[in-house]
Amino acid sequence: MGAIIEVDHLSKTYDKGPRALDDVSLTIDEGEIVALLGPNGAGKTTLISIICGLVVPSSGTVRVGGHDILTDWRAARRLIGLVPQEIALEPFESVINTVRFTRGLYGARPDDAYLEKLLRSLALWEKRDAPTRALSGGMKRRVLIAKALSHRPRVLFLDEPTAGVDVALRREMWQVVDQLRRDGVTIILTTHYLEEAEEMADRIGVIDGGKLLLMKPTAELMGDFGKKHLTIYLHEPLTDCPPELLERGLTPSRDGLQLGYDYDTRADRTGIANLLADLAVRGIQVRDVSTKQSTLEEVFMSLVDNGSGPDGSAAPDRNSAGETA
């Protein structure tokens, strides 16, 4: 499938304010799930707002389904659904009428059968006649999702969709997202729950200071930047670790019963075999070993911390990061 979103050299500078976006380019293919990660104020919401037609860019172009968001905005917006961060609903309107009204705003004809299916999928059907002010915070967020899907968009933006939502509801929402993926809906999400991004997203983009640091397939990102940590469990406490082992990167635990060792998963040789052999030569008996892969959170923090990679090197630019702009 081809690209459904094309962002080309997009920048945004607010009056008397900072540069919110700085020359961002990316493409998103139809049916993809893309997660945008970045600290608060990184530019994620500004990027989403521009694509959705809520903010006018300072420069650059955006096309959705081939439609320019400025010159062909009606056609572009019909393809988009947005679940915003903030919960803003008419407090005295019923759930069903709220969703009907949003569908009408997009010029879609009434279709109560579809709306019933939609509300049932979000566990809202029993609450269809309740005023939105009577709903819990989690239920109100479900209503926002129903509104965003009311006109059957091809692209769905989820801006922190599970913020303030309990664990059970988060799981239900991601089940809905998984079904949308199977239906061919393109999904772009921002989230602070990094484990969700790692599990759900096909690709992950990291934004900081208005710049897109990279955009990579999730597995490739973890392979390129993820390191593994080897823990070596000893039979007897090591009271004094030999200097030559410390120079090789071994870090003993306080009780001396464990040795830690970080290694690059991409390296041709990890050095683990030689390391274990050296321990045996020195009479240090190994009881067991275990490995742990770096989490996406650790990768993310290493990328946005002073713009450096996990090993302290400069973060890759957009082209070398594998972006398909």
From TrEMBL:
Pfam families: ABC_tran
Segments for region (Disordered): 303-325
Xref: InterPro entries: AAA+_ATPase, ABC_transporter-like_ATP-bd, ABC_transporter-like_CS, ABC_transporter_ATP-binding, P-loop_NTPase
UniProt-listed SMART domains: AAA
A single GO molecular function term of this UniProt record: ATP hydrolysis activity
Keyword annotations of the record: ATP-binding, Nucleotide-binding, Transport
Protein name as catalogued: Multidrug ABC transporter ATP-binding protein
